[in-house]
Design goal:
The protein has about 450 residues and is an alpha+beta fold. It has three domains: about 5-240, no CATH class; about 285-370, no CATH class; about 405-449. It has helices at about 5-10, 15-25, 70-75, 115-125, 165-185, 230-235, 255-260, 265-270, 285-295, 300-315, 320-330, 330-335, 345-350, 360-370, 385-395, 415-425, 430-435, 440-445, and strands at about 15, 45-50, 60-65, 80-85, 85-90, 100-110, 130, 135-140, 145-150, 155-165, 205, 220. The strands form three sheets. A six-stranded antiparallel sheet has the order 1-12-9-10-6-5. Strands 3-2-4-11 form a four-stranded antiparallel sheet, sandwiched between helices. A two-stranded antiparallel ribbon has the order 7-8. It is globular, with a radius of gyration of 26 Å.
C-alpha cells in the first residue's frame, strides 16, 4: 500500500517540512541564533552520518535548531538519518532533565498494511468511541498532522500552548500518551495490535523532509485545518483514569527550604546531580549486556534488547555517541534473528537514553527481552536485612576487618573533615572544600561534630 497516495485520496493536504515545523514551533519559540534570551530554548536535531571518524566509527552530529530554522535546510539537504522531538531543550543535550517545553504529542503507529487498516483508523477519528460487533472501541482525536515515515505513520497532536516539562507534569502526560497509543494500536488500525510499542514523551521521530529507511522522503499531511489542542480537549478522548488531572508547574518549596528540610535529597540531587533513584555503575555492566544480546536476542524482543542497552549505558555513564555506534554495530547480528531490523528501529529504542529509563526494573527487562538475568539470592529477605546479616558474618569471620574493604568510619566524609580541621585549626570551610573536594553541604554537616 502506498500510504502517501492513500492519505492524499482521503483529502489530506501535503505540506512542506518548513510549514510543518513552523506550525509546531511558531515564530519566537526558540532563541535567535547567537542571542541568549532568558526563558527561551531551542530544538535539537540528531543526525547519523555515513562519514567515519579516525577510529573508523560513524559520526553522530547534534544540531541546535534556532528560530531562523537554518539547520532544517542543512540537514534536509543531506541523505542521512535525522530525528527530532517536538520539544525545546536547555543546552545541547536531549536528556529529559534538560527538556523545557512540549509543543506536540506524537504517536508512532506501525502495522498499517492495507486500506482496511487505514479505514479503521479514520473511523476511530470520526468519534471518540464507537460500537463494533457489540463491543465498545475507543477512537482517537483527529491528528493535526499525519507523517508518513515509509512503513508507518506518525500522528502529531500539536498543542495550542507549549507545556512546561516539570516532573509532575511529565508523569501525567506519559499516562495520557500511553493511553492514546493503546487506542491507536489496538482498535483494528494496526496489524500489530498484540505488540503495542509504547514510547516515551521525549521520543524523537524521523524528520519531515529527510529520507526514510527505504530511500524515500518523509512527508507530512495536514488533516483538515491542523487543529491545535488543549490538554482538556485531549482528556475528553480517553477514560477518566488516564486524564491529566492537574498541571502543577512547580513546588512552592524554595531550594533553600528544601536544603534544610531534605538535606540528603539536596546533597544527592542538587550537589552531586544524581538522577532520581539511581546510582552509577561500572561500564562492565554495559559490556555484559552486549554479550547477553549476542547470546539471547530473538525476533520480537530485539527492540527491547537495544532499549535495555540504552538504559545500561545511562546507568554506566557511557556517552550517547558510543551507545549509537555500538547499537548500529549490532544490526547485522539482529537481522540474522528474524525480519529486517533497521537503523530506524535502533534509534527509536535509543530514546531510552534521553529519558528516565535509568531505573528500568530487572523484572521488566527480563520480561521484554526474554533474556534471563540471575538475581543476587537473598532467600526472601529484604535487602536491608540481607546486608545486615552479611555484615554480621563478616565481623565474625574477620574481626579485624581483613576483607577487601575498609573499617567503618575510616575514609568517610566525616573523618576527612575532622582530619582537615585538626591540621588547620583556624581554617575556613571554603579552603576545606578546595583541598578535600568535598561538597559545601557535606562540610557544613560535619564541621562542628
Amino acid at each position: 500500500m502506498n500510504i502517501n497516495m492513500s492519505l492524499l485520496n482521503r483529502g489530506l493536504v501535503e505540506v512542506s517540512y518548513k510549514e510543518f515545523y513552523r506550525n509546531i514551533f511558531p515564530v519566537g519559540s526558540f532563541e535567535e541564533r547567537g542571542v541568549y534570551e532568558r526563558g527561551k530554548y531551542n530544538g535539537i536535531i540528531i543526525e547519523l552520518t555515513n562519514d567515519k571518524k579516525a577510529d573508523g566509527k560513524l559520526k553522530v552530529l547534534r544540531h541546535t535548531l534556532t528560530d531562523d530554522f537554518d539547520k532544517l535546510d542543512e540537514v534536509v539537504g543531506r541523505d542521512n538519518f535525522c530525528l527530532m522531538s517536538p520539544i525545546s531543550y536547555a543546552g545541547k543535550s536531549r536528556k529529559s532533565t534538560y527538556a523545557r517545553f512540549l509543543y506536540a504529542i506524537a504517536i508512532d503507529l506501525d502495522g498499517i498494511v492495507s486500506e482496511d487498516n487505514l479505514a479503521v483508523l479514520f473511523k476511530q477519528i470520526e468519534s471518540n468511541s464507537f460500537l463494533l460487533e457489540n463491543s465498545v472501541y475507543w477512537g482517537l482525536p483527529a491528528p493535526s498532522y499525519f507523517v508518513s515515515s515509509g512503513t508507518g505513520i506518525h500522528l502529531y497532536y500539536v498543542l495550542e500552548k507549549p507545556i512546561p516539562l516539570f516532573r509532575n507534569v511529565v508523569e501525567q502526560l506519559e499516562i495520557l500518551k500511553r493511553r492514546l497509543t493503546w487506542q491507536a494500536w489496538t482498535q483494528g488500525a494496526s496489524e500489530l495490535h498484540d505488540n503495542v510499542q509504547y514510547e516515551s514523551l521525549f521520543q524523537g521521530f524521523r524528520m519531515v523532509g529527510t529520507v526514510t529507511k527505504a530511500g524515500n522522503i518523509t512527508k507530512a499531511f495536514r488533516y483538515e485545518d491542523a487543529k491545535k489542542y488543549t490538554i482538556e480537549e485531549l482528556n475528553r478522548c480517553v477514560p477518566e483514569e488516564y486524564r491529566v488531572k492537574r498541571i502543577v508547574y512547580q513546588s512552592d518549596l524554595t531550594l533553600a527550604e528544601a536544603k534544610n528540610k531534605y538535606p540528603d535529597w539536596y546533597e544527592k540531587r542538587i550537589v552531586r546531580k544524581q538522577p532520581k533513584g539511581s546510582w552509577i555503575c561500572n561500564r562492565a555492566l554495559y559490556d555484559w549486556w552486549i554479550k547477553k544480546i549476542y547470546s539471547g536476542a530473538e525476533q520480537g524482543h530485539r527492540y527491547w534488547c537495544i532499549l535495555a542497552l540504552a538504559a545500561y549505558a545511562k546507568k554506566c555513564g557511557i556517552n550517547y555517541e558510543e551507545l549509537v555506534l555500538d547499537s548500529v554495530g549490532l544490526i547485522d547480528f539482529l537481522n540474522s534473528k528474524g525480519d529486517e531490523f533497521t537503523v530506524d528501529d535502533v534509534m527509536k529504542a535509543l530514546e531510552a537514553y534521553n529519558d528516565s529509563y535509568i531505573t528500568y526494573p530487572i523484572d521488566t527487562i527480563v520480561a521484554r527481552t526474554d533474556i534471563p538475568i540471575k538475581k543476587n539470592k537473598r532467600n526472601g529477605r529484604k535487602q536491608a536485612v540481607h546486608l545486615a546479616r552479611a555484615r554480621a558474618v563478616q565481623n565474625i569471620d574477620y574481626p579485624n576487618h581483613e576483607w577487601a574493604g575498609r573499617p567503618i568510619g575510616s575514609g568517610t566524609a566525616e573523618q576527612k573533615v575532622k582530619d582537615w580541621r585538626h591540621l588547620h585549626p583556624g581554617g575556613r570551610k571554603i579552603d576545606c572544600h578546595r583541598e578535600t573536594g568535598l561538597s559545601r553541604v557535606t562540610i557544613d554537616k560535619w564541621w562542628d561534630k
